[in-house]
Known about the structure:
Layout: E1 3-6, E2 9-12, E3 17-23, E4 32-38, E5 45-50, E6 57-59, E7 67-72, E8 77-82, E9 91-98, E10 110-111, E11 117-122
Parallel strand pairs: 2-11
Antiparallel strand pairs: 1-3, 3-8, 4-5, 4-9, 5-6, 7-8, 9-10, 9-11
Amino acid sequence: VQLQASGGGLVQAGGSLRLSCEDSGRTFSNYMMGWFRQAPGKEREFVAVIGVSDGFTIYADSVKGRFTISRDNAKNTMYLEMNSLKPEDSAVYYCAVKYKSGSAYDTGRYAYWGQGTLVTVSS
């Protein structure tokens, strides 16, 4: 598994961005996948997770109703559609494989973190 996140950038508050996370390996479709984010001086926090192929999703309360996680197993790619962006959404966004059972919110249950993509939302 080798994850590459992309799609970040500078956007005004209220705007939208779509992040992508591509796996150059061959095992993408075997795992649940998640998005996390980390703002300067803060801990990495859970954003969303998606099941392998059953449409199962969980969202952090802070993004529920604004963000949508999805995946295309044929393209080995996961997405995060972000709408109604707020300045507090500014962070480096990371994708990762959830390889351990248990809480989706726990970074310790994820591995193969991508390098991150920076999202900056101006007010």
